[in-house]
Amino acid sequence: MPSQDKIERKAEKLQRHYEETALMLNKNQEEFNVSEAVFDRPTLEGILSLIQHKKIDKIKGVLKAGKEAHVFWGTAPSGVEIAVKIYYTTTSEFRKGMMKYIEGDPRFKHIRSDNKSLVYAWAQKEYSNLQLAQQGGVNSPRPIAFLKNILVMTFIGVDGVPAPLLRELPLDDPEDFYDRLTDEMRALYQKAGLVHGDLSEYNIMVWEKKPVIFDLSQAMLTIHPLAPSLLQHDVATVNAYFARLGVQVYDNKELEEWVKSGEA
Prior knowledge:
Strand order of the largest sheet: 1-2-3-5-4
Strand content: 15-25%
Shape: globular
Largest sheet: 5 strands, antiparallel
Structural class: alpha+beta
CATH topology of the largest domain: Phosphorylase Kinase, domain 1
Number of strands: 11
CATH class of the largest domain: Alpha Beta
Order of helices and strands: HHHEEEHHEEEEHEEEEHH
Helix content: 40-55%
CATH superfamily of the largest domain: Phosphorylase Kinase, domain 1
């Protein structure tokens, strides 16, 4: 096992590398500040540990920069493409709405309320939810590893180009896609024991003509008291989107019941 001093020296070297890269790539101070927020010392040490444990080989570029996290494209030592999601630990903006998705979850009973602990729990929660989705046969990214505020998962796309979002791609057969998506919602509920809670055209990818559900960090166990209202939200949002595409959608209540109790 490498000593802590050795890890810290490597982390310093890695930090200098990312700072130099940020200075070359970022065109203004605001963007550089975001890079500093993503690659703080504990995050760099976490990346180094994941590299040493052969979960990550290279981080190659940014796929998405959101309010909660950066998502990077990279490769595993085998050459397989991966996505690396790094949650910000220095911002408290999304922390305000985070607690309601953690409180009441029996998997996270003893989480400290400081910002960093909550963010680490949030990354672990998304990893755990992706595991449940995989076990339930849901079409979603597969979890590979997590550490601190870092989540490593399979990349949906090819050659660093991510699969398009549902909202970005005209569907050849919207009715068939709607049926496939409602099947995924049912599998997520019945087999994975989860409700997404924020399902929309913004967090559904289209890959090989099939829906891929992602962004599962806020997803709740179906036993959670908030699960019924979250399912109502998902059903209403999905139905509204496909109705705009001219699909004859199910009644909201009927779809809710089918997701919960229909044959899966």
